[in-house]
Amino acid sequence: MIKLIDIVKKYEVNKNNIVTALKDINIEIKEGELVVLKGASGSGKSTILSLIAALSKPTSGEVIVGDNRVSKFPDNFASDFRRDNIGFVFQKYNLIPTLSVKENIILPLLPMNLHVKEIETKLERVLKMFHIEHKANQLVKNLSGGEQQRVAIARANINTPKIILADEPTANLDEKLSLHFIDMLKELKAEGKTIVVATHDPLFFGLDIVDKEIEIHQGVLS
Amino acid sequence: MRSKINIYLIEYAINSLLRQKYKSFFITVVLTALIFLLSSLFFITNSIKYELQSTVNSLPEIVVQKVKAGRHYDIDVNAIDDILTITGVSSAVARVWGYYYFENAGVNFSIVGIDEYEQQYKNSLIHVAKKLDFNSGSSMFIGTGVKKVMNKNYYQEYFNFIKPDGTLKKVDISGVFNGDTELESNDVIVMSKENVREIFDIEEEKATDIVVKVANENEIATIASKIKLMYPDTRVITKDDLKISYQNIFDYKSGIFLALFVVSLFTFFIIIYDKASGLSSEEKKEIGILKAIGWRVDDVLKEKFYEGFIISFFSYMSGIVLALAFVYIFNAPLLQNIFTGYSQLKTSFELPFVFDIQTLALIFFLSVPIYIAATIIPSWRSATLEADEVIR
Ligand SMILES: Nc1ncnc2c1ncn2[C@@H]1O[C@H](COP(=O)(O)OP(=O)(O)OP(=O)(O)O)[C@@H](O)[C@H]1O
Ligand SMILES: [Mg+2]
After folding, report:
1. How far is residue A103's CA from residue A137's CA, in Å, rounded to a whole number?
2. Which residues fall within 8 angstroms of residue A187, CB to CB, at 6 or more apart?
3. pTM above 0.90?
4. N or C: more exposed end of chain B, with fewer CB within 10 A?
């Protein structure tokens, strides 16, 4: 279960310019739910995902994921929490372009010092699941946008997280690829994962797999 | 499990260096060159210090010269008998020697007259020649530097000295020194006293100077002043005086080395400063990504540590190996010229191998940890920012 309680998030651009990105946000997401966060550009969608993933801390309020009060986590705890629980598909994918597909996907596992066999098994699974096997040894910078996105999802799933966060996943895809992405989400939902998708893509609105739509407008829920 | 060495992070570090291969290559070359220069300087300095030390150790305790109007004249050998009466003096021997200017090459040779039966000479010179034997009459032993100069000027077997009266004196070359105090003996020619007298036109009862041996080091100063009282027209030079003037030559020359040393350190710190002052936006972003997908700060720092260690340790090893080869196998061309040639002789001499762990450790600590710190510190700054800020 994911809970955001009375969240306020302010960014201090400089002394005279403080942006309030989120204001009095209360959200509850149950385990296994697929939730769509919708809203215009700049409304605060990415900020919410960041808070859930403990990538940033709220100015006030609390973020609770499962039994973890992640908004109170010190930095190293936050890293471990992300590694073990969160699969994040970033808005701009955030892949390392000069590494190969394979190398990008296993990146989260490296600090864990696992056995080579174990890494290979995990890698095989996500390569197959997201249909990117044939590009495994190519450099990411040479891939198309859709392929890069599949690498990003594969990387997000390498450590079998319980929670998937996807930020504007279809922003750079055509309709066919977007529908394909939705199929992949279906699969993940079927595995019982909790999924939060931030998007303003109408393809997601009113989908039968979507349990809840949360609309945000200039940092406030509507 | 986390404390164990993580091969994946090392692999990632290597991969990361290879991904920026021009940058890594450039840094490695510059670091290697600096470490090479620095350690060459240290190696040469150490060797020459060692060389000077052994030279100084073989110097006579007291040298007595006759001085008139501030200039050096031949001294009466009769003075020896008087000097020997001073208590504490164990021996006093007349030396016959001088500088011979070889015009063709424009260099000076030091010619030293030696008498097989005089112990004083044996002590200071026997270790530089294989065998001292002048039975063959007109023959001489020459330093390796002298040999080179003579050979270059068509004298292979003998040499023609021009005497003060303009006539020639032919002396056969019967051997070459292979001593360990090469710095000193490089430009030296050793021959019988009669021959030296003839070449320099020194009278039979005169000598260039008198060398006095003292049994007890502590008495050197007292005995020196007694000789000075006995012969007010002399200059009495003690081993300590000589030590100081040798040391002065070294210190002056090592000033040049110090300058080179400072320049190379300066360059090093510019590199360090440049590195420490910031990461490129790609590097920052990469750290942000790693953090965002679950790397801890210390995972990032470990990986950066390996990057810094691989580059700096590799550069250190290659710099040291190159310097060892440069100094001790190739005899430090260019750099060693600063130090040799006591009497303008353009010669080479072999640098004795002095292995000094302290020097290696000093260079290590001047390079590797500093470079690693310069790699880690900016990464640490990026890694401790909120990951969200870095990847946006
Ligand atoms: N690091 C930051 N510094 C200052 N302002 C920020 C920062 N991050 C976000 N903001 C501001 O917070 C607000 C919310 O940003 P956020 O990225 O969450 O919006 P979004 O809904 O994801 O928009 P988009 O659809 O364009 O991705 C915006 O006004 C943005 O400019
Ligand atoms: Mg966004």
Report:
1. 8
2. A129
3. no
4. N
